[in-house]
Amino acid sequence: MPADLSIIPFVRTALFAALLAATTGCYEMDEFYAPSTDEQAETDTDDEAATDEDGADEVDDEGAGDEHTVGGDAAPGDELEDGEAPAEDAEVAPEDCAFGMHTSEMGDVEDLDVDDFEHLFGAESLTDLEVDQLLGGLDLYPWIDAPDLDGVFAEIDDQRILIRKLERVSTGQVFVHVRFYVREMEHGFVFFGGSLRLVAAIDGGSIVGCTVPLS
Length: 215
Known about the structure:
The protein is an alpha+beta fold. The protein is built from four helices and seven strands; from the N terminus they run H-H-E-E-H-H-E-E-E-E-E. Strands 1, 2, 3, 4, 5, 6 and 7 form a seven-stranded antiparallel β-sheet that branches.
């Protein structure tokens, strides 16, 4: 067979391959399938989580106005929270006082939990708050005319002060009852717990100047 005829099939095959490459073009693998790496997957997840958080913040902002803010105006019908100080109302009638009309009745008031008295002798046995309560009460109800604390105790029978805790069961409000005697006459004060806020006074055992009404 002549040598020039033996290369014809090879040339024909090469031309056909070149023609096929020219019509279909060359493609990289990534153009058909490019799976995301672990780092890309984490980035996508973080982006989705951030979107969810933004949505939650929008919902919270929309509902924030529905809650009462601390110190804001209470909605109609709201009650005092447990332990909250009573409003500084005007004096109530003796029969409407939360502590009763006489100290002897305090233990019989259903809404009042009464502790036993602690007996304290002399000014040095009182705390600073208790001293301020005693002197503050006497400024408003001057049953004792004395120039200083020592003079006050000189007038008090046995130099003895009796102090006990009162608690309103329905509200959880705590009060302090300060009692003392002057020439065998009972006097004293009722303060809102831990404060100098006078809410009642005692004159001869009778409760006067009460500003805490029955519930």
